[in-house]
Write a structure and sequence with these properties.
It is built from one helix and ten strands, in the order ββββββββββα. The N and C termini lie far apart (35 Å). The longest helix has 20 residues, at 127-146. The radius of gyration is 15 Å and the shape is globular. It has a ten-stranded antiparallel beta sheet with strand order 1-2-3-4-5-6-7-8-9-10, with helices on one face. The protein has one helix at residues 127-146, and strands at residues 3-8, 14-19, 26-32, 40-47, 52-60, 67-73, 76-82, 88-93, 98-105, 116-120. The protein is mainly beta and 147 residues long. It has one domain (3-146). Helices cover 14% and strands 47% of the residues.
Length: 147
């Protein structure tokens, strides 16, 4: 699947995900909530079979070193974790500890636009969920490195 992600600059982080290269109708949304320190946001993913939006949340958990977020979607908690100075991010279903997906950020991303190698290991959740999670993580990393 090919997705196009669009983020607009502003006080709050807002991301729209489109199917393919089109900008016609978004299929997933991420909207940050105003938060002083840790990232908090809402997720909405279009279920095409039902033609309904399904909602969830994403919250950054405090971690001294590295990244940890908790995504809640379809009444399941999913952790998204990355170790400090690591280019890898994993998504784990907290109900059974199953690894759902892995992202590896390419080294070239340190100098240019972010590019990833993605491995989705389960079809339990829509692929869009993982992309929105990584967008939130990248946003918080960008804030840390830019001050």
């Amino acid at each position: 699947a090919l997705f196009r992600m669009e983020s607009k600059p502003g006080v709050l982080h807002n991301v729209r995900l489109f199917d393919g290269l089109t900008k016609k109708n978004p299929i997933a949304l991420l909207k940050a909530k105003l938060s002083v320190v840790l990232y908090k946001g809402t997720i909405a993913i279009l279920n095409r079979k039902l033609n309904q939006w399904q909602n969830g949340t994403i919250n950054q958990n405090y971690k001294i070193v590295g990244n940890k977020f908790l995504l809640s979607y379809n009444n399941v908690d999913i952790s998204m974790e990355g170790k400090a100075a690591s280019l890898d991010t994993i998504f784990i279903d907290q109900s059974n500890q199953q690894v759902l997906a892995k992202f590896h950020k390419r080294v070239s991303s340190l100098f240019w636009r972010n590019k990833y190698d993605i491995q989705i290991l389960s079809d339990k959740f829509p692929d869009q969920l993982y992309f929105l999670g990584v967008a939130a993580r990248d946003h918080t990393n960008k804030k840390i490195h830019s001050g």
